[in-house]
Each structure stands twice: as C-alpha cells, then as structure tokens.
Batch of 2 targets.
Target 1
Amino acid sequence: MTGEQLLTILADCSGNRDLTDPGTDALHRTFEELGLDSLAVMESATRVEREFGVALPDERIVDLAGPAALLAEINSLAEHA
C-alpha cells in the first residue's frame, strides 16, 4: 500500500479532503494534528482490510500515532501474510 492510497482512505472515512493535498505533509503528522478521531481511523482500518486483505488488530491501531505508523503497520502485516 502506498501513502497516497492510505491518505485517500483516511480522507474518505473522515471527510477531511485536505489530507490528500500534497502541501499538508499529512503522512508525517499525528492523527490528532490532522483532526482525525479514533472512529475515522478504525473505519479506515476496516476499509483497508476490505480492499487490501490486511487485517489490523484493534489493539495495535490505537497505539499508532499517525498515518506513517499506520502505513508501516499495514505493509508489515501484508509482507508477513
């Protein structure tokens, strides 16, 4: 999965279209800085599982600070699947 794909999913699930604007550097900010609540992040994780076949355990998601950490987790799980 690419950062662009993840940011598109996060934007769709949160309604925050600014996440896909290259000038925001959204990938390297925290969920809090981006105004994303846990519901949007969990919804995004569900969509990742549905579209990419990578299941993210809830207990791992809540410990992730931002999109870059989430992307690393997704790609790590996909690599070991």
Target 2
Amino acid sequence: LERIVTGQPLTIVRVGLDRYGRTLGVVYAGEVNTSCAMLSAGQAEYVRRWDNGGAVRRDCSELAK
C-alpha cells in the first residue's frame, strides 16, 4: 500500500455512511483505486457484505469474487 500511495495525490470518494455515521469511501492514489490494487497484490480479501454501495465489485469486478 505504501508503494501505491507514496507521492500520489489521494482522493476519497464517499459512498455512504455506516450505522455509526462514519464515512465509507473509496480511496484513489492518483488514478489507482487502492482497493483494486490491494486485491490484485493479494494484500486484501473481497468480502461482499463489507462492500457498501458495491464500489469494489463495480471497480474491481475481475478481482471481487
């Protein structure tokens, strides 16, 4: 993750709120969706019930199974 984000502008796209009012979002390092990058590198596991708004499934469809 550090290699993905270092030196890149970070953007958080809000996709909703959890039941405690915390922001749920997708983080981009430049144009790279960090969730997709971590899934691709084996540093994360896709869990459908945690994919609020379906953002990961939509952006990383080949990885989110």
